[in-house]
Design a protein that fits this description.
two-stranded antiparallel sheet
Length: 206
């Protein structure tokens, strides 16, 4: 059975959109997205193609030559907007999923959604966007580990307190038992002495 060449398929889709990338460069770009180009599957083709299309379409946006007259703040804002690309929530979640997998971090769907809400809806630099997402994922994972560590510390402290309380209780009962036993023995001894004196007195009177 012939193995599907997913790299060639992605390369063709990009070429159909007017983006020409050599096979070696395409491998490098796929790796930069957090994918293993040697282990691609059918489910990766659309995601990688879409991400690379957005990256290169953003890179190829042209900036008009500056005019001699200084641009107004409104014009500068419009120029910045023109040089940025929109990114949908689905695309953000796909990027987060891919980058989390490449970092060896497992995220639930709700966690991916939480992180995606902190990512901007537009970007001017694809690489910096990926770096931002990586940073957010690491911060999220660090927070989870901190919470887990605190839970373990609390559990250990609760167990330690429980053991100390039970130990103190046993020691107190042991001491109370010893005192009670001593008092009983002393009473018995006193009674025995009184009985002995009584017997001795009877013998003396006879």
């Amino acid at each position: 059975m012939t193995k599907t060449d997913f790299i060639k398929r992605i390369q063709k889709r990009l070429s159909d959109k007017g983006i020409k990338i050599s096979r070696n460069n395409l491998k490098a770009e796929i790796s930069s997205l957090g994918f293993d180009y040697s282990a691609l599957g059918e489910e990766n083709v659309n995601t990688i193609t879409q991400l690379l299309l957005e990256k290169h379409q953003n890179t190829e946006l042209t900036v008009s030559e500056p005019e001699e007259i200084a641009a107004t703040p409104s014009e500068e804002h419009n120029a910045t907007t023109a040089n940025s690309s929109a990114i949908t929530n689905q695309q953000k979640e796909q990027l987060i999923t891919v980058q989390a997998q490449s970092l060896g971090i497992e995220l639930s769907e709700s966690e991916i959604t939480d992180i995606s809400q902190t990512v901007s809806d537009s970007f001017t630099d694809f690489v910096s966007t990926v770096e931002t997402i990586n940073s957010l994922i690491k911060d999220y994972a660090r927070s989870k580990f901190d919470d887990l560590e605190q839970q373990i510390d609390n559990s250990n402290n609760n167990l330690r307190d429980y053991i100390n309380k039970r130990t103190t209780s046993l020691q107190r009962k042991s001491v109370e038992g010893a005192i009670s036993t001593k008092e009983v023995l002393e009473q018995k001894s006193s009674s025995l002495k009184s009985f002995s004196k009584s017997i001795s007195a009877r013998f003396k009177t006879q």
